[in-house]
Predict the structure.
Amino acid sequence: MITSGTTTVRLTAKGAATRLRIVEGAAAEIRERGAATTTLDDIRARTATSKSQIFHYFPGGKDELLLAVAALEAERILEDQQPHLDDLGRLDTWQAWRDWRDAVVRRYERQGVNCPLGVLMTELGRRTPASQRLTGQLLAQWQSALRDGVRCMQGSGLMDPALDADRTAAALIAAVQGGVTVLMATGSTAHLEAALDTTLELLGRFDAE
Amino acid sequence: MITSGTTTVRLTAKGAATRLRIVEGAAAEIRERGAATTTLDDIRARTATSKSQIFHYFPGGKDELLLAVAALEAERILEDQQPHLDDLGRLDTWQAWRDWRDAVVRRYERQGVNCPLGVLMTELGRRTPASQRLTGQLLAQWQSALRDGVRCMQGSGLMDPALDADRTAAALIAAVQGGVTVLMATGSTAHLEAALDTTLELLGRFDAE
DNA sequence: GCCACTGTGGACCTGCTGGTCCATTTTACG
DNA sequence: CGTAAAATGGACCAGCAGGTCCACAGTGGC
């Protein structure tokens, strides 16, 4: 059973599977080829479904499907950073920060141009008010996790307590986002690494740890 | 006289003016509404031209026009940062860096979502191999200007000589780019400012100046 | 003032894309 | 089983975007 907008539809196991297949296929197609150029027919072909199925599971049409894809990608972005980044505040040692940094960089090195974050922020996120809200939430949640990490480090005397934790978290997000955007344009992770490393290294300059 | 691809066409003064009007109108339209949703008809309406004119000046069709727009925007991005950033290496004092930072932030505050950089990197830049080369060149030129600034500061003993100047420049570009991308998604310049300020402040921590 | 070339207008064509519709098959469940 | 609801297949439609074409007007050099 799933609710979309005002209507509620019952889904059988088979139906749920099909719906999932469509969303994931659409997400993959969009990551590979961009949202702008991906058509419903591409998705249909990739997921071995018919037109009617797409509109059956997403009565709102393409917009609704793309919103579902955006939600999936937003989830994936946070998941990818687990367990470095969770409610328990695992970013509590320099090693943890380094691990997080490595996880981010390695992931984008492997994925190259096809990254959820880039697609979400630069293509899906701006499409509709609903998807804008979604990206806003993602950003807020992500930033709050990083902020908690900074606060934790400050609490342990490992980072300068004079730093504005929230602002620092925002800077880190911008660094990742900028690195990813450049990656998508050039195919190189150099900027991503430079931005993350520079910021982290300078954060660590507070003491000798 | 203008060369496009293999063909060369002579332009009268009137022709050159029309061509310019089309490119600039297209650029403005795209900045406001995004490249994905801007149609030739929109451009036609805005620039008071006919279909045949667009194809007369851009025989390659939409791709060629968008490439011209990308080139225009790339130029504008560097121009916007003049005279902070030029071949003479004006980034030679902390005040100059602060001025540059202010120029960047103020510009995007005023422009809001409609920024050349964002559109170029996230929409135009990925369209064709030609536009990819173009964004690559922009990035290289920009980074080299910033790198010269860092080197200059290092030479004067104002920045840590141990820093890799090129890497630092890359980090700054990623910071701006990330800030802009977030700006386009959320409408807020908070991340842009946080990223720039954090990076610059930490760069300045080397000495007390 | 003539002639060739450039500039302009706009009708028209075509393919693609999102979206609709309905007939048919499959599933859930009493 | 039997039936209602869910799932599926795919033909069909309408609009729109990019692109072509041709007729005509404007311009510039000789």
In short: The longest helix of chain A spans residues 129-155. The radius of gyration of chain A is 19 Å.
